[in-house]
Amino acid sequence: MTSVPNDINEKSRDEEIDESGEYEIIKRKRASLLDHEYDGIREYDNPTPGWWHAIFIATVVFSVFYVAFFHISPMSWTIEEQWTRKQNVETKKLFGTMSLQPVQADIHKMQLDPKMMQVAKGMFEGNCAACHAKDGGGVNGVNLTDDNYKSVKKLEDIYTVITKGANNGAMPPWENRLSQNERVLISAYVASLRGTTPAAPRGPEGDVIEAFPVAGK
Ligand code: HEC
């Protein structure tokens, strides 16, 4: 290993550098060379900067409080709880003191409110589109845009199907997942899908039923 000279340890090189005025730097560098040597490789003592240490120590200290609070303390909350709380706030903001009933008057009231129908569209896309398609044309769930229905005979039945489900859970019940206000609102949206033209409609299932009463008439 000694056959390969280390630049800095070689005397002649030091003198050379000395003449060109760089000797001091090299001397200081050599002083910071660490004692150990691995297969002829030596290293300088290059400590990480102070600001780096400070950040590192701060993260360690933070982690102690984090674990104590979020994993041990009963005062903490889970992401799920946070989500539910936020959703409740939003729902409250949306419906205010409204207490919608699954009756024609309230369903129509929602249909006549463009802002609420926009919200309902989002709810439908988030909860129902997987089976009924975004535009209600149907995937493995039935087509909600045609005149044929399996469990619905009149407007209010839409709410009942959404609440209780149908066909042994093939259409899941939403009783425990959506509030009554939300279910009435989605019913209004589903009713408004009837007569629209979806991109890839599923064939008709069930019987043709009478037209739903139209809002505002
Ligand atoms: C897991 C798939 C799935 C999801 C999610 C789903 N549905 Fe359904 N839905 C179905 C199936 C399947 C049927 C047909 C049930 C039957 O055979 O009677 C159905 C039927 C219905 C019906 C009755 C249609 C008729 O012909 O009588 C309505 C209304 C309805 N769904 C609305 C919704 C709404 C609103 C949502 C979202 C809140 C939703 N569905 C979510 C699968 C689903």
Helix count, per DSSP?
Answer: 9
Q: Which molecules other than protein and nucleic acid are bound?
A: heme C
- Residue share in helix: 40-55%
How would a crystallographer describe the biggest sheet?
2 strands, antiparallel
Order of adjacent strands in the largest pleated sheet:
1-2
Give the H and E element order.
HHHHHHHEHHE
Integer-rounded radius of gyration: 36 Å
Q: Write the CATH architecture name of the largest domain.
A: Orthogonal Bundle
Q: Write the CATH homologous superfamily of the largest domain.
A: Cytochrome c-like domain
Distance separating the two termini: 98 Å
What average pLDDT do the residues reach? 89
What amount of the residues lies in strands? under 5%
What is the 3D form? Answer: elongated
CATH class of the largest domain: Mainly Alpha
What does this entry look like structurally?
With 217 residues, the protein is an all-alpha fold. The chain folds into 2 domains: 2-42, no CATH class; 86-208, Cytochrome Bc1 Complex, Chain D, domain 2. Helix content is 49%, strand content 2%. It contains 9 helices and 2 strands. The protein has helices at residues 11-19, 23-31, 50-72, 79-95, 104-111, 114-127, 129-132, 157-164, 180-193; strands at residues 148-149, 207-208. The protein has a two-stranded antiparallel ribbon. Helix 5 packs across helix 9, helix 6 packs across helix 9 (180-193) and helix 8 (157-164) packs across helix 9 (180-193). The longest helix is centred in the first third of the chain and has 23 residues, at 50-72. The termini are far apart. The relative contact order is 0.11. Bound molecules: heme C. Heme C (HEC) binds at residues 127-128, 130-132, 140-142, 144, 149-152, 158, 161-162, 166-167, 170-172, 174, 186, 190, 206.
